[in-house]
What we know:
This protein is of the alpha/beta class. The chain has four domains: about 1-160, Alpha-D-Glucose-1,6-Bisphosphate, Chain A, domain 3; about 185-300, Alpha-D-Glucose-1,6-Bisphosphate, subunit A, domain 3 (Alpha-D-Glucose-1,6-Bisphosphate, Chain A, domain 3, 3-Layer(aba) Sandwich), CATH 3.40.120.10; about 305-445, Alpha-D-Glucose-1,6-Bisphosphate, subunit A, domain 3 (Alpha-D-Glucose-1,6-Bisphosphate, Chain A, domain 3, 3-Layer(aba) Sandwich); about 455-535, TATA-Binding Protein (2-Layer Sandwich). It has 18 helices and 19 strands. The strands form five sheets. A five-stranded mixed β-sheet has the order 1-3-2-4-5, sandwiched between helices. Strands 7-6-8-9-10 form a five-stranded mixed β-sheet, with helices on both faces. Strand 11 (about 330-335), helix 11 and strand 12 (about 350-355) form a beta-alpha-beta unit. The longest helix has 18 residues, at about 305-320. The protein starts with a helix and ends in a 12-residue tail after the last helix. Bound molecules: 1,6-di-O-phosphono-alpha-D-glucopyranose. 1,6-di-O-phosphono-alpha-D-glucopyranose binds near residues 285 and 380.
Amino acid sequence: MSSFQKVAEASSKFPKPDAAFTYGTAGVRTLGSLLESTVFRVGLLAALRSKKHGGACIGVMITASHNKEEDNGVKIVEPMGEMLDQSWESYCTDLANAPTDANVTQILETIVSKENIDLSLPATVAYARDTRPSGPALQAALESGLAALEAKPLNFGIVTTPQLHYFVRCINSKNTDNPYGEPTEDGYYKKLAAAFNKLIEGRAKTDPIHIDAANGVGAPQVLKLSSFIGSDSLDIVVHNDTINVENKLNVECGADYVKSNQRSPSGVNVQPKQRFCSFDGDADRILFYYVSESTGKFNLLDGDKIATLAALYIKEQITDAGLKDLRVGVIQTAYANGSSTEYIQKKLQLPVVFTKTGVKHLHHEAEKWDIGVYFEANGHGTILFNSKARDAFNSAQPDTPAQDDALSRLRALRDLTNETVGDAMSDMLIVEVILRTKGWSLEQWNQCYTDKANRLLKVIVKDRTIFKTTNAEQTLTSPDGLQSTIDNLVAKYPGSRSFVRPSGTEDAVRVYAEANSTQDCDELAYKVAGQVFDQAGGRGTRPPEFL
Ligand code: G16
């Protein structure tokens, strides 16, 4: 009898629907109603991953983040809070697509033998979900998967994605030389609040931060965080906080909406001088914006602006602390605004490395630096400090009181940072600390450099899997001929660039364009989008020729 007899029995309760699944940019994502069998099988895989790590706790997050409410998704978190090792992604795809229960157990057996997994080891899996209506059924499916392999379940309820990543790291680092913190919600808030209050000591309180919480889990969580920080230190006003009403999540609000439409979300009326930011549905992204007092124009400060602000501050602090030999690198993707890259390289004199889209790629590149700052333009990112940096912060001998202060700021900055993954709450506080330290408004921050005009569009096509890319996803190798059409269009607009790639989280193809003027940029973006639509079997309405 198969060692997975119990699995086969449990699996029969979660038949695979007639759909294909892929472990994409951030796990498997599709309509929540199609995902029960996949999430059950992810439970099995997470249990095996835990055994593979000698019983270390593995995380599973049920969320579709910025996607529409009907979607849901699932992703696996490694013991130190990183995204699932890419060598295991194909196991997940294979399991999710296995047509029968017998195929499921066969694939498990193959994984066990290929990875040399000792099934007698224990397994622990920590999991959580966002506020989507399909969440409870998917959580039940996950729990069945864990029970089928007798993995110990640790249910963290409804929390943000970065909180779950944080808990997993805390659990696994508990008895090490470098414990990350207490694996509880209160532990998370206490750590961030203490670091924030230390870093703003002696600085004047600023006007409130207004948060568009995308009607998602970030709304209740940031209010809890706020109560730990205290209103003497920071006032937070939360908008779009309706989490118990259907069809509100990410609808005309949230970081993805604000970035794509370059306008403020509905549900808020941004007044000049007010400081606003938007989270996405699971609070792993953040963007800031304001309305200019003189022109009334909407101004967006995206992930690139956050990366440059963080890199500037870190560079100043390590210089003040006398730690000049720490290597600081900034990691971006092709979506990074050309002006931000130029500012980092020329003004900050820091190196920039490019990776494919997806924090899983940026994170691994950032690990190669003593301090790696990574942000995607969409607002997803964080800062990583390696052991050399941590040791320097903790044990460098300061020559002056000023150096001592800078070292203590760097230690607090590390505590304020969620190093496991991009975290809207942590990133919001990091930005607030830097702005207060510098005495800058959002407008002054925005003046560091001027963004090139840019536009991000989505085109829905019959089959987005026909889109294949190379060159860090900036050049299409398929469909045939489309890349040369794009090249010809780009050549017509001086200083422009444009690229097309299939989304790994939504059933859409993304079109990005950047140019010297808004008019050129929009013309280029819509022309490229029109060509994608025509040459790849667009669905729905063809993109207009111009905005
Ligand atoms: C996820 C990933 C991000 C990525 C985004 C869009 O974000 O974590 O790294 O930038 O998807 O990816 P794509 O363009 O492939 O759809 P989130 O916030 O949805 O988890």
